[in-house]
Inverse folding.
């Protein structure tokens, strides 16, 4: 019996989720444009006196990325100086343009958004990070805090909330969606070690024990032992159930 989720179902779920993200961001941009056109001139004069903040945006869906750039560009004190569509490009691009804030989608090709945020904190600590996600999972917030993320908000937040979040994290404040914070407080602690998470993350992506062993420089027998331990710790029925539990809790992307 296969230990992997049906690829077609997983891809369909991802496509549907990203389509919903795109629709939501487009609607947010439309509302923001309407509000911007009706704002009084005096507000524009006040905004011009504000200090400009530079932003690096990381989002792999082209339409969503373009909409977010347009949304942020409506704010006179915010400037998107670079945008990327792959997690591997975040740190090199940030080191080149040295933005004040990096706005990062949590689910990216290459390294995921939280891993990139942790690397960015080490290489360029002056750059604050704001994570965007469509998945409000408590375990994901715990991972974000461990990665020294400055802010964590949902993609369906109002446009004004995104702009304010950028300003607040740039000022050194931590921004967390209140409902998600409460859920994280009440959620179960992640019982898996970092190595166990690495093994389970690769298993969730379809790798078998031999492939996982090669990637992590372990023996196949050691990988199988890790998988057995993971199933036991999560009180799962099998490896597939362990992956489901970990993904639902937000412990693996």
């Amino acid at each position: 019996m296969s230990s992997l989720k049906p690829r077609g179902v997983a891809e369909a779920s991802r496509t549907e989720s990203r389509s919903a993200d795109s629709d939501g961001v487009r609607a947010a941009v439309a509302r923001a444009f309407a509000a911007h056109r009706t704002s009084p001139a005096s507000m524009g004069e006040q905004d011009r006196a504000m200090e400009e903040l530079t932003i690096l945006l990381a989002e792999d869906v082209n339409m969503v990325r373009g909409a977010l750039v347009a949304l942020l560009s409506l704010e006179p004190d915010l400037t998107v100086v670079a945008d990327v569509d792959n997690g591997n490009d975040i740190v090199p691009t940030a080191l080149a343009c040295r933005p004040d804030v990096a706005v990062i989608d949590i689910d990216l090709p290459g390294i995921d958004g939280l891993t990139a945020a942790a690397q960015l904190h080490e290489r360029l600590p002056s750059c604050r990070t704001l994570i965007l996600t469509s998945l409000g999972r408590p375990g994901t917030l715990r991972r974000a805090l461990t990665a020294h993320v400055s802010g964590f908000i949902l993609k369906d937040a109002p446009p004004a909330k995104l702009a304010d979040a950028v300003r607040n994290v740039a000022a050194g404040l931590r921004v967390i969606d209140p409902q998600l914070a409460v859920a994280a407080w009440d959620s179960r602690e992640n019982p898996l070690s970092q190595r166990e998470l690495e093994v389970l993350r690769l298993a969730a992506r379809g790798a078998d024990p031999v492939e996982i062993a090669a990637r992590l420089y372990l023996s196949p027998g050691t990988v199988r032992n890790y998988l057995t331990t993971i199933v036991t710790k999560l009180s799962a029925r099998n490896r597939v159930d362990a992956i489901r539990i970990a993904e639902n809790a937000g412990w693996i992307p």
